[in-house]
Design brief:
Layout lengths: L9 E9 L3 E3 L16 E5 L3 E3 L4 E6 L5 E4 L3 E13 L7 E8 L7 E9 L2 E9 L8 E4 L11 E3 L13 E8 L10 E15 L24 H14 E4 L19
Antiparallel strand pairs: 1-2, 1-7, 2-12, 3-6, 4-5, 5-14, 6-13, 7-14, 8-9, 8-13, 9-10, 10-11, 11-15
This protein binds 2-acetamido-2-deoxy-beta-D-glucopyranose (2 copies).
């Protein structure tokens, strides 16, 4: 993620790595952008605008509607890096989201959301497995955060893990309850950089589990010691909310919270 300053437009580079063994936000060597080509379609609201030889998708939120897109390709595992520029807001709640979601009644989802929250921004992540969500973690945003992993969700036989269903990429921009008509239209920009996903068929996730995919290899099952340090320090300094410590919502510590490092 990259962000240049509190008063400039926010620019985030976001990564999700979905392994058959572990999911985490990952730092990426950012070389080149993949073009959207035909790999997206409008799901609701205003149609996405494709800019600059199809590398950038712009979504619009105005007084009529927000906007959302979904990929045509389905993924079974992978590493997804997205450069996101959230709309500039002064005193509003505009929600810009990038997420991977399965298409079934048992919803699996890995989600990044940028909340325009007055002059500040919050980065929220959520994980939904088999329709069970409310695993939010939120960070106050700092300056250069691109290289910092912010969430690890370990695979463990006793904990549900989102590796049972194929998923589509999604993006959207929405009215999150307070929007300022004078600031409209809001534009959220999505540049796909390094989408290293295993494209598959709806029901064929097994083919995405092998070590021929770099993100499945053992050396990527854990954070490096450098990444781990950054991860711990970001949580210490910038964490705004963690469902793992929310005893009102979860009187008992959720199982996955005990082994999250
Ligand atoms: C289009 O993309 C190129 C290469 O990334 C960049 O140098 C250029 O500034 C972009 N143009 C616009 C209008 O965004
Ligand atoms: C934004 O959402 C809020 C809460 O749902 C609603 O009261 C308001 O009218 C919406 N604003 C616009 C411009 O759609």
């Amino acid at each position: 993620m990259k962000m240049s300053g509190p008063h400039e437009k926010i620019l985030l580079l976001i990564g999700i790595m979905v392994l058959t063994v572990a999911a985490r936000a990952i730092d990426e060597d950012l070389t080149g952008f993949v073009t959207w080509g035909h790999n997206y379609y409008k799901t609701w609201g205003h149609p996405a605008l494709v800019i600059n030889e199809t590398s950038e998708l712009d979504l619009t939120l105005d007084h009529k509607s927000g906007s959302g897109f979904e990929s045509n390709s389905i993924y079974g595992s992978g590493s997804f890096s997205m450069k996101i520029k959230a709309p500039q807001t002064k005193s509003t709640r505009v929600v810009t989201s990038f997420y991977l979601r399965s298409k079934s009644s048992r919803n699996d989802q890995l989600c990044f959301q940028i909340f325009g929250n007055g002059p500040a921004y919050l980065l929220n992540t959520n994980i939904i497995i088999n329709g069970e969500g409310a695993k939010d973690q939120r960070f106050r945003l700092w300056f250069y955060v691109d290289d910092t992993p912010i969430r690890v969700y370990k695979k463990n036989p006793s904990i549900p893990y989102p590796s049972g269903q194929t998923m589509f990429m999604h993006g959207s921009v929405k009215n999150g309850s307070i929007v300022d008509p004078n600031e409209m239209p809001y534009t959220a920009k999505f540049q796909a950089s390094t989408i290293d996903g295993c494209v598959t068929d709806f029901l064929d996730i097994e083919k995405c589990f092998g070590p021929q995919f770099w993100w499945n290899r053992k050396e990527n099952w854990q954070l490096s010691s450098r990444e781990r340090k950054m991860y711990m320090s970001a949580r210490k300094v910038y964490m705004d909310y963690d469902y793992c410590s929310d005893r009102k919502l979860y009187p008992k510590v959720p199982k996955e919270c005990k082994s999250r490092n």
